[in-house]
């Protein structure tokens, strides 16, 4: 082989090496970019889930306060001397029933976004609110007994709300899974 052939071969090998290096670099770079995109997508999903959970957790508390606001007119009506337990009082209970329905929808949103521990606590809040409403709705021998039952259910509700808020802070502070 003469010097001309050697030069051609050297140039060809140099070009092939350059192309192989460029292709290899492109493959490595594309893998790195795909990994980075996948990692960023996972971060975005975790962030979105955390925000959805925060909104769902807060909605339960907001709906709970709405239910509480409906109790005052009921208590005032029960305290009046002309109160009739046998009357239907549907119009008096309509706001409470509607608020309980919205609370149930908020509980369902927590069940969807998770985690299960928060869904269980949200469901417990709904049950405690319903028990509290039923303390005034159901017949008891006298108004004082109703108020006593209402107070007991209020205490139980406060306890579960305290636990719910504490657990919500823990869930929202932890990385979403």
Compile the SSE list and pairings.
Blueprint: H1 3-69, H2 71-79, H3 90-113, H4 116-137, H5 143-173
Helix pairs in contact: 1-3, 1-4, 1-5, 3-4, 4-5
Attribute tags:
single chain; 177 residues; mainly alpha; 5 helices; rod-shaped
Task: Please give a structural write-up.
The structure is a single chain. The protein is 86% helix and 0% strand. The chain has helices spanning 3-69, 71-79, 90-113, 116-137, 143-173. The relative contact order is 0.11. Helix 3 (90-113) runs antiparallel to helix 4 (116-137). It is rod-shaped, with a radius of gyration of 32 Å. With 177 residues, the chain is mainly α. The termini are far apart. The longest helix has 67 residues, at 3-69.
Q: DSSP strand (E) fraction? A: under 5%
| Oligomer category | single chain
Radius of gyration: 32 Å
Would you count the extended β strands for me? 0
Poorly predicted runs: none
Q: What would you call the structural class? A: mainly alpha
Average pLDDT, rounded to a whole number, is 86
Which range best describes the helical content: under 10%, 10-25%, 25-40%, 40-55%, 55-70% or over 70%? over 70%
Number of distinct helices: 5
Biggest sheet record: none
End-to-end Cα distance, whole Å, is: 66 Å
């Amino acid at each position: 082989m003469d010097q001309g052939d050697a030069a051609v071969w050297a140039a060809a090998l140099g070009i092939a090496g350059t192309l192989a290096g460029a292709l290899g670099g492109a493959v490595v770079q594309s893998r790195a970019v795909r990994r980075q995109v996948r990692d960023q997508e996972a971060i975005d999903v975790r962030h979105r889930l955390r925000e959805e959970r925060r909104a769902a957790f807060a909605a339960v508390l907001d709906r709970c306060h709405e239910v509480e606001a409906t109790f005052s007119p009921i208590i005032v009506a029960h305290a009046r001397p002309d109160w009739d337990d046998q009357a239907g009082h549907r119009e008096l209970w309509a706001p409470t029933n509607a608020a309980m329905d919205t609370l149930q929808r908020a509980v369902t949103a927590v069940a969807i976004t998770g985690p299960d521990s928060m869904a269980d606590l949200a469901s417990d809040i709904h049950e405690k609110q319903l028990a509290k409403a039923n303390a005034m709705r159901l017949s008891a021998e006298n108004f004082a007994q109703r108020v006593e039952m209402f107070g007991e259910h209020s205490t139980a509700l406060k306890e579960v709300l305290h636990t719910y808020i504490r657990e919500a802070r823990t869930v929202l502070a932890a990385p979403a899974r």
